[in-house]
Design the sequence.
């Protein structure tokens, strides 16, 4: 029983981690809590739906499922397209809302603006795709039985595998590439980075693209294992913030660890508290981390 | 025709808020191979001046020229690429990054191969950086951090070096070594504009000095003259008070 909860916790934590990476970066580098970030997961999931329909229309292998999974090559092709589409949404928000506000208003104004942006994005989804749940696929799947009587769906195994690949790719990008190193420099000290010759505006663009792409992949994976609803992102907002704060803003590894802790805590909590209170767990985690270690697990203590 | 100054700032009005200037028409120039120290009491606008030159503080009036070309309002990262090196007073290294990563960021305006080659050259000048290459900059001593900060700024071979209190929180020995390095920069042809709280020590290694007070030029002249003028020392630099303290302590 407990092993099943652990497995479920890791799987839901993987989605939270993907979303939290971008949120964590924007909180650190753009210095505001972006409550509209969770809506990028929704936009990623729904925009993938459009591309899945487009690629499936070609028929043949694109329209067939792959092995034990519920999806076909059309979804695999739709994912990078969804990343691009969601990145474009994020860059439009940056260009026309947050960048302008950052020049003329304080951080609190940006936080409140992000609430407004979140509502707008969510209702645009309702306007375009409607409010009824949608599925990428209605194919039946058979659970895989793992040692310890743990059952997982093949799609969930794919989810976990892809999350690991994304995290490794991001790790290599942040530690080996000049853009990644500059990004970490900007996160720590933007003025010093500027004076050292780093084009901070370009780095900020990278932050939005990486954050939105992570959100898009997280949204698609979440939608793939559950269903698409306009509230998909909204329902993840607390877990995302809990993971970002828990891990320490601006830290890739912190966001991943934070996501896993949130996922595990939520799923293990149902063993001791009624399921109704499960959504309160991330909130309690935020309170606990802010009380005991406000900078987060991997965060640097501000002096 | 005489060559233009490497740096010429004229009647600069600048500050952190648009309607609250810190500098009220400051002018300064620095030539190649010259060290100019900006000294003055706290709050006189010394750091604001170097930040304005480095493109980190908005200049609302006046102009800044680099080798005769107007660079007023040019973004800081472009200035770094055009030969302006800046070492800030605090937070002058990326503490969470390794020494190598700090240097890589300093080489941002260069192509990757050129940056790596330059890092090798810099490490030959400062061997301690080679030894600590893969350590986090936050683990370095104060003196080693300053060396890293200067080395990072040197990556692009700057024609103008801006140093904001480079000896702050350094031991006397480390401060002395850093001042020697500053002279070395000037010998190599760079123009150096340096802000220092330790006015006496700064003037000893400088060619000229500029005394700022309340965001305005007060006195300017050869460093030796400023050092020997007791009136200036007493009014602006607290020389006599320092001397009295030293005597009292002794």
Sequence:
């Amino acid at each position: 029983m407990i092993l099943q909860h652990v497995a479920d916790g890791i799987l839901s934590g993987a989605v939270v981690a993907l979303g939290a990476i971008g949120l964590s970066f924007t909180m650190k580098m753009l210095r505001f809590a972006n409550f509209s970030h969770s809506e990028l997961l929704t936009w990623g999931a729904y925009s993938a739906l459009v591309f899945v329909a487009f690629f499936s229309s070609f028929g043949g292998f694109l329209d067939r499922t792959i092995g034990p999974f519920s999806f076909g090559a059309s979804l695999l092709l739709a994912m990078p397209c969804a990343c691009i589409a969601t990145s474009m949404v994020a860059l439009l928000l940056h260009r026309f809302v947050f960048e302008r506000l950052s020049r003329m208003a304080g951080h609190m104004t940006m936080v409140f603006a992000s609430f407004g942006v979140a509502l707008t994005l969510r209702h645009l989804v309702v306007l375009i795709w409607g409010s009824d749940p949608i599925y990428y696929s209605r194919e039946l799947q058979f659970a895989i039985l793992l040692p310890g009587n743990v059952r997982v769906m093949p799609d969930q195994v794919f989810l976990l595998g892809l999350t690991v690949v994304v995290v490794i790719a991001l790790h290599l990008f942040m530690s080996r590439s000049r853009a990644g190193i500059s990004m970490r420099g900007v996160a720590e000290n933007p003025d010093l980075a500027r004076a050292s010759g780093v084009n901070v505006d370009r780095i900020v663009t990278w932050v939005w693209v990486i954050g939105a792409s992570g959100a898009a992949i997280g949204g698609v994976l979440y939608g793939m294992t559950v269903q698409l609803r306009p509230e998909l992102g909204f329902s993840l907002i607390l877990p995302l913030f809990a993971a970002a704060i828990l891990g320490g803003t601006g830290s890739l590894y912190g966001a991943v660890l934070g996501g896993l802790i949130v996922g595990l805590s939520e799923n293990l909590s149902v063993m001791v508290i009624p399921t109704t209170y499960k959504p309160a767990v991330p909130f309690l985690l935020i309170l606990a981390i802010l009380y005991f270690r406000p900078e987060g697990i991997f965060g640097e203590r501000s002096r | 025709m005489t060559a233009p100054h490497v740096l010429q700032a004229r009647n600069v009005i600048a500050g952190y808020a648009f309607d609250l200037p810190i500098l009220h028409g400051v002018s300064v120039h620095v030539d190649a191979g010259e060290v100019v120290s900006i000294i003055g009491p706290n709050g006189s606008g010394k750091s604001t001046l170097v930040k304005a030159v480095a493109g980190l503080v908005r200049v609302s009036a006046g102009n800044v020229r680099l080798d005769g070309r107007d660079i007023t309002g040019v973004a800081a990262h472009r200035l770094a690429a055009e030969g302006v090196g800046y070492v800030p007073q605090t937070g002058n290294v990326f503490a969470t990054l390794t020494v190598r990563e700090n240097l890589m960021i300093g080489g941002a305006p260069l192509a990757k191969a050129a940056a790596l080659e330059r890092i090798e050259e810099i490490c030959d000048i400062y061997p301690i950086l080679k030894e600590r290459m893969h350590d986090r900059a936050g683990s370095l001593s104060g003196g080693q951090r300053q060396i890293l900060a200067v080395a990072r700024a040197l990556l692009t071979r700057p024609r103008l070096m801006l140093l904001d209190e480079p000896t702050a929180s350094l031991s006397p020995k480390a401060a002395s070594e850093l001042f020697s390095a500053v002279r070395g920069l000037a010998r190599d042809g760079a123009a150096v504009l340096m802000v220092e709280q330790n006015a006496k020590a700064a003037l000893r290694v400088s060619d000229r000095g500029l005394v700022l007070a309340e965001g305005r030029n007060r006195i300017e002249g050869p460093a030796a003259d400023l050092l020997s003028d007791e009136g200036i020392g007493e009014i602006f630099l607290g020389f006599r008070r320092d001397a009295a303290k030293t005597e009292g302590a002794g």
Chain B has one domain: 7-249.
